[in-house]
Amino acid sequence: MNEFRQKRDFNRKFFSPFSLAVVSIIAVVLIISTFKIYMKSRSVSQKNEKMAQEIADAEKRKTVLGEEIAKIGTESGLEEEIRDKFSVKKPGEEVLTIMDKRPEDDKINSNEGKGFFGKIWAFVKNIF
User: Fold this and answer.
1) Residue 13 domain-assigned?
2) Is residue 15 in a domain?
3) Is the pTM of this model over 0.70?
4) What is d(CA 128, CA 123) in angstroms, rounded to the nearest whole number?
5) Rounded CA gap, 10 and 13, in Å?
6) Rounded distance, CA 60 to CA 85, Å?
7) What's the average pLDDT block by block, 10 residues per block, for the chain (128 residues)?
8) How many independent structural domains does the chain possess?
9) Cα dist from 111 to 17, 30, 56, 99, 125, whole Å
């Protein structure tokens, strides 16, 4: 009998409204803290991915800059860089500028719309 009484006393204490409220509060606190930890871990993993991408971009940039440094290290690369930055030329070189043909140039050189004296002047100008 004593055994049944002990079991009944334990069940009465353990399943009392007060003990159930305490266990419920502890469960809610644990669930909230677990959710906060999950959100922080998710944020950290996103930051980790972002940093990994930035590291990959920095490595690519390092490779490109290394190639540019190697190119400038040669005499021809240095000359090309100086020409691009400062628009210089070597002694004896000439600058050649290529321009696209514009429709206005065709009208200027043609005899259309010049009139009688304009055509005569163009004829004389073309002779010399």
Assistant:
1) yes
2) yes
3) no
4) 9
5) 5
6) 24
7) 78 83 95 97 97 97 94 88 83 80 60 71 80
8) 1
9) 110, 95, 64, 23, 12
